[in-house]
Write a structure and sequence with these properties.
This protein has 331 residues and is of the alpha/beta class. It is built from 13 helices and 7 strands.
Length: 331
């Protein structure tokens, strides 16, 4: 029976590509698996049902608080271990509890449905709310960034992370409209700067909201660091499964797996590609997997999701670089 079919259609959160993710991970009793993005626990619930022990990470305190009451937390030893940490800190967090290798790592990258649906979190312009966007609910908010950064920095963020071609125009209007306090105010400024026509198929504020959220949460740098951490943690035969929701994320995952497979050795952009190819750290790399029409009918948010998975080899993990993603110049 499909795991997707077992989830009520009116559930507040429907985990994306859950059948494909669980099939790739192939959980078994006694396996130790990291759910790097716990959220509402959709993947974790299925992994626990298969008998696995799950170490679940989330920097959102609301997600961690919701998981505290799960019965698997009370088992001895507990089969659900919650970590209120960034997933880029997996190695250190697991070492603190005596775990040095795991059988699987799964990550669902980006903002969760619960975060999007809560206007107080400020992730969406669908309903007016405070201009926040912080996954961890601490540190500088989107309002802090937009009300203090100079025009060039804002433009670079919009271009790099949102691929907004009119980034300089939008940034100029944002600076002129400061201070900004709500998502509604920001969306209005962006739409006005781009000449938005009501009824257009895509709201022009979408790209800029995505860019600002990625910047505030350092999402792409976090993803790069987490992939390196997963390589170090996975035992031979362990599975890495990553679901990405836009091209910037998927590009990082695809490139990481290409380099880790030995098909292309990582190199500085200032240096020529080396002839010597490193031994493969991952094998059996999947092609891009996307949601079926059945899943899309139940969960339209799955439309942009892409799953890639691979199996860890016996080759020692490569030295971790944790390099932040490069910034392109704003147009």
């Amino acid at each position: 029976m499909s795991l997707l079919a077992a989830i009520p259609a009116d559930a507040p959160h429907i985990p994306v590509l859950i059948d494909e993710v669980i099939s790739a991970l192939a959980p078994r009793a006694g396996a130790v698996i990291v759910d790097a993005t716990f959220g509402a626990g959709g993947y974790t619930r299925a992994l626990l049902a298969a008998g696995a022990t799950v170490h679940a990470f989330d920097r959102d305190p609301d997600a961690i608080a919701a998981g505290q009451a799960w019965p698997e937390r009370q088992e001895n030893p507990p089969r659900l271990v919650l970590h209120a940490r960034r997933f880029s800190e997996m190695c250190d967090a697991l070492a603190e509890v005596g775990v040095t290798q795991v059988d699987g790592v799964v990550a669902d990258i980006g903002v969760s449905s619960m975060q999007l649906d809560q206007r107080a979190r400020g992730f969406s312009f669908g309903a007016d709310g405070p201009l926040d966007m912080r996954m961890s609910q601490d540190g500088p908010s989107a309002a802090d960034f937009l009300n203090t950064a100079d025009e060039e920095e804002i433009a670079n963020v919009l271009y790099t992370y949102g691929e907004e071609r009119q980034s300089r125009r939008v940034a100029r209007h944002i600076v002129a409209a400061r201070p900004l306090e709500t998502t509604g105010q920001l969306a209005h400024v962006i739409r006005k700067s781009l000449g938005h026509k009501p009824g257009a198929p895509k709201d022009p504020a979408t790209r800029s909201f995505q860019a600002i959220r990625i910047h505030v949460n350092e999402e792409l740098a976090e993803l790069e660091a987490a992939l390196a951490q997963a390589e170090a943690l996975l035992a031979p035969g362990g599975v890495l499964a990553v679901v990405a929701f836009h091209s910037l994320e998927d590009r990082i995952v695809k490139q990481f797996l290409k380099e880790a497979s030995g098909k292309q050795q990582a190199a500085s952009r200032h240096m020529p590609v080396m002839d010597d190819i490193a031994p493969a750290a991952f094998a059996d790399i999947s092609k891009a997997i996307r949601a079926s029409q059945t899943e899309l009918a139940r969960n339209p948010r799955a439309r942009s999701a892409t799953l890639r998975h691979a199996i860890r080899t016996t080759t020692p993990a490569r030295p971790s670089t944790n390099v932040s993603p490069s910034h392109r110049r704003a147009s």
